[in-house]
Amino acid sequence: MARSLKKGPFVDAKLLKKVADKKPSSTGVIATWARRSQISPEMIGFTFGVHNGKQHVEVLVSEEMVGHRLGEFSPTKKFVRHGGKMQKELEQKRQQAEIAAAKASKESPAKGKK
């Protein structure tokens, strides 16, 4: 849901206080739980540790992120692959093929150098 234009963008006051009068290079990771805060131009260059419910995910703010919310860059759900037994078999075959190709490539240059 969009925020009313007359209210203006929401930026957590504590977060602005942490960013004010500091340089991005000298400041380390700024830990925050304020996922709903919008990214303002003053935040460009800073690294925020945005909490995702379990840990802090480091987010380096760039110009393209201005206007978005901090929470958009710290996913709360972890994607677990689709597929079951069949998918595992396909992955194992692919991995074995890669190993065989790597062995073959190691052997062929060694024979040429002798």
What does this entry look like structurally?
The chain has 114 residues and is α+β, with helices and mostly antiparallel strands. It has 2 domains: 13-73, Ribosomal protein S19/S15 (30s Ribosomal Protein S19, Chain A), CATH 3.30.860.10; 80-114. The protein has 2 helices and 3 strands. The chain has a 3-stranded mixed beta sheet, with no helix packed on it. It is elongated. The mean pLDDT is 88.
Q: Profile the largest sheet.
A: 3 strands, mixed
Distance between the termini: 69 Å
Individual helix count: 2
Superfamily at the CATH H level of the largest domain? Answer: Ribosomal protein S19/S15
- Give Rg in angstroms: 23 Å
CATH domain fold name of the largest domain: 30s Ribosomal Protein S19, Chain A
Q: Globular, elongated, flat, extended or rod-shaped: what is the shape?
A: elongated
The first-level CATH class of the largest domain is given as Alpha Beta
Strand content: 5-15%
Count of domains: 2
Poorly predicted runs of 5 or more residues: none
Q: Please trace the helix and strand order, writing H or E for each element.
A: HEEEH
The computed structural class is alpha+beta
User: What is the strand tally?
Assistant: 3
Strand order of the largest sheet: 1-2-3
* Proportion of helical residues: 25-40%
Q: Let me know the average pLDDT.
A: 88
CATH architecture of the largest domain: 2-Layer Sandwich
